[in-house]
Design goal:
It is globular, with a radius of gyration of 27 Å. It is mainly alpha-helical and 499 residues long. The protein is built from 22 helices and 6 strands. Among the domains are: 176 residues, Serine Threonine Protein Phosphatase 5, Tetratricopeptide repeat, CATH 1.25.40.390; 76 residues, no CATH class. The protein starts with a helix and ends in a 14-residue tail after the last helix. 41% of the residues are buried. A two-stranded antiparallel sheet has the order 1-5. The chain has a two-stranded antiparallel ribbon with strand order 2-3. A two-stranded antiparallel sheet has the order 4-6.
């Protein structure tokens, strides 16, 4: 009897142990000792950079900016009739969130700083695209199970962006360790600080209409950063935030071998005419001669051998002109050269135009002409460096001749508005395949440069929210639409930053 009782006690104890073990989560006991439970943030950084620098690149902005036209169909961007935008960029935030988490585990300020910058870069573009967007609760599905994030107001998003950029700059100040996995600056944290502070100035200038309706003194903040922080300062481009491509599978220029350039895509007469009016030799590195121009034996730098299509007439008319050999195409280097040119997120040229505008607006003191000229020089230098076999058309002698022209020389602009118009025009002329929709947002903010539209075409100020948001985050997106547009998700309605 005692033996039986002893066996019962042993069996009960065994069951208790088994029961206790079964209460543990499967993930607690099913650990693969050969699989790392953490990832160094450098393993994520390369992918984060690659995605961010390529995200807003493409031909869509070129149609809206009157730089290219389509001859084999109607392009919605060309006539400002786009509808729904995409929240695809939120998927890129997952890697950034993961990079933040891994950086916090090892207390690495560099990676935390870069994560903050790339977050703000995406949110900046997303809020300009749509208006109110998920921000505070965005990209927290995995960590906090926030799968239906609320929409923050555009004002709140801009406040958050500027706060995170300031934090990123501070984090980099306190850490001089190299940044492994960095394909932009090779791990140089000082150059990243310059980019981040330059981007802060860009964000602040974007808010030029909101000085009286923002919790931060925009002008004072701009002046404080301009005077007290390190900025992109090398006119040769060595400090530009740019993604350089390689002739390797998966690392080539995005438009390499693009079929679109070989079919119905041609240059817009708006852009061609502006380059011709300014006698701008950058035309020769951006477009090809017309077929008739080539057949006539005209020199490559003969402005009369270039012509574009009218963006506001029926595309069949433009196609007829193309068939007759009277249209220029986008230069073949963009789709035949696997390394073409870098994509610049923000660089010295754009920054100089930002500073020039701020001086004209009275935000800071300085010589707006010097900054204006510096911006043009840097743009010419970019093409001299990267437009292979065409650099003689944009060399120093061509540059000096260009700067002396009446239409270019800022001394011939007598009023502040005239100066702003010239500054924004040059900022626009440097943006072919660079900067995404930046020049379009500048147009919405300032009116410069003017963009040709048919009489029955309305300006588009934004994109409609994605259908997926209506389907999956109905309450939150509906509230945002009601708050901003009285329930009318319309592309022709202004958001807060433009009102």
């Amino acid at each position: 009897m005692k033996l039986v009782f002893k066996h019962i006690i042993l069996w009960f104890g065994l069951l208790t142990v088994i029961g206790l073990q079964s209460c543990k989560k499967l993930t607690d006991v099913n650990i693969n000792p050969n699989e790392a439970s953490t990832t160094h943030p450098q393993a994520l950084l390369t992918k984060v950079e690659w995605d961010a620098f390529r995200t807003w690149h493409g031909t869509s902005p070129l149609y809206a900016l009157k730089m290219i036209v389509q001859t084999d169909g109607e392009n919605a961007n060309q006539i400002y009739n786009w509808q729904r935008g995409s929240f695809e960029q939120y998927s890129f935030l997952r890697n950034i969130t993961k990079m933040t988490e891994e950086a916090e585990k090892i207390s690495d300020n560099n990676y935390q700083a870069l994560a903050k910058f790339f977050r703000t870069y995406y949110f900046y573009n997303l809020t300009l695209t749509f208006g109110d967007i998920p921000y505070a609760e965005a990209a927290k599905g995995e960590s906090s199970e926030m799968f239906l994030p609320k929409y923050d107001t555009q004002k709140e998003v801009f406040v958050g962006i500027l706060k995170e950029l300031e934090e990123a700059n501070t984090l980099l100040k306190s850490n001089t360790n190299p940044i492994n996995g960095d394909i932009i600056y090779g791990g140089n944290s000082d150059k990243w600080r310059k980019l981040i502070n330059s981007f802060r100035l860009k964000v602040l200038l974007t808010l030029s209409r909101k000085s009286a309706d923002f919790p931060i003194d925009i002008k004072s903040e701009f002046a404080k950063i301009y005077k007290g922080e390190t900025l992109i300062a090398d006119a040769t481009g060595s400090e530009d935030g740019q993604l350089i491509f390689l002739n390797q599978e998966g690392n080539r220029y995005p438009e390499f071998n693009s079929s679109g350039y070989g079919s119905g895509m041609y240059m817009d007469s708006t852009f061609i005419q502006r380059l011709q009016d300014h006698k701008d030799p950058r035309l020769f590195v951006l477009a090809t001669q017309t077929r008739l121009g080539k057949e006539a034996g005209k020199a490559l730098d003969d402005f009369s051998s270039y012509e574009g299509g009218n963006p506001i007439v029926p595309y069949a008319e433009v196609n007829e002109k193309a068939v007759k050999g009277k249209l220029s195409k986008v230069h073949e280097r963009f789709y035949k050269d696997p390394t073409a040119e870098p994509l610049v997120l923000i660089g010295y040229s754009e920054l100089q135009f930002i500073i020039a505008e701020a001086i004209v607006r009275g935000w800071i003191t300085g010589n707006e002409k010097d900054c204006y000229v510096n911006g043009i020089k840097a743009s010419f230098k970019f093409y001299e460096n990267y437009a292979k076999n065409l650099n003689t058309y944009v060399d120093a002698s061509r540059l000096e001749s260009y700067l002396s022209q009446k239409m270019v020389n800022l001394d011939n602009a007598k009023t502040s508005e005239e100066k702003l118009e010239r500054i924004l025009m040059q900022k626009y002329l440097r943006s072919f395949h660079q900067g995404g929709y930046t020049a379009y947002f500048d147009h919405l903010r300032t009116g410069y440069p003017s963009l040709l539209k048919a009489d029955n075409v309305k300006i588009a100020y934004r994109w409609m929210y994605p259908q997926d948001e209506y389907n999956n985050n109905t309450i939150q997106v509906s509230e945002a639409i009601k708050r901003q547009f009285a329930g009318n998700d319309n592309i022709n309605l202004q958001t807060w930053w433009l009102k």
